[in-house]
Design brief:
- The protein is mainly alpha-helical.
- It contains nine helices and two strands.
- Helix content is 67%, strand content 3%.
- It has a two-stranded parallel sheet with strand order 1-2.
- α6 crosses α9 and α8 packs antiparallel against α9.
- The protein is globular.
- The termini are far apart.
């Protein structure tokens, strides 16, 4: 057995921030690899673009796992590791919505900071996967992604929080801005080098 019997699986594996990430990682990687092998293998496009598309799918799948399906994934891992039912209870259709922003909590609450950090990869991977989408399109895509996920969370017993949408979108905007800025600087440097 992987863990001592007296150590509950949920406490050890899921009650920390890395605990939300680690159970989702194998599933996200598997989906990314399958996407490459099944969907992209015969597509006519550069290998670099295929790679970034697969990485984006892997990231997006991991995001969905952590934000929507983490309880079900916990149940799956419990069964894999312990070969028994976890006794976890699931609650659906809680319809818990919070539309009031609370910006004073953004820097004090670690969960708020995680909401910002979690969407930083979106701002880089989306333009790489979609072949150079603009800063504004990347932000709009990240915003829509965040809103859709947040709207689905009350269905699975979690809550919609407008602060999560704000911080998710801010993460996308900052990462996309830095990425596009660096890309433009490198492109100008390359063009200047070619002109000499």
């Amino acid at each position: 057995m992987l863990f001592p019997k007296n150590m509950t699986f949920q406490y050890f594996f899921f009650d920390t921030y890395p605990g939300y990430f680690l159970p989702s990682l194998p599933i996200a990687v598997l989906v990314g690899v399958l996407f490459w092998l099944i969907w992209l293998r015969k597509k006519e496009m550069p290998k670099a673009q295929k790679f970034w598309k697969s990485v984006f799918v892997c990231y997006f799948c991991g995001l969905l796992c952590m934000l929507l399906f983490i309880d079900f994934i916990g149940l799956l891992w419990y069964w894999i590791l312990y070969h028994s039912e976890s006794g976890m209870e699931f609650y659906f259709f809680e319809w818990n919505y919070d539309f009031r922003p609370n910006p004073e909590t953004y820097l004090r609450n670690p969960e708020r900071i995680v909401n910002f950090l979690m969407y930083l990869p979106f701002g880089v991977l989306y333009p790489l996967a979609t072949k150079g989408k603009s800063w504004m399109r990347t932000i709009v895509a990240g915003f829509l992604c965040s809103v859709i996920i947040e709207l689905l969370q009350p269905v699975i017993g979690r809550a919609f929080d407008i602060d999560d949408v704000i911080l998710n979108t801010a993460g996308v905007a900052v990462a996309a801005g830095v990425f596009i800025l660096v890309k433009n600087v490198l492109s100008r440097g390359k063009n200047c080098g070619d002109g000499e």
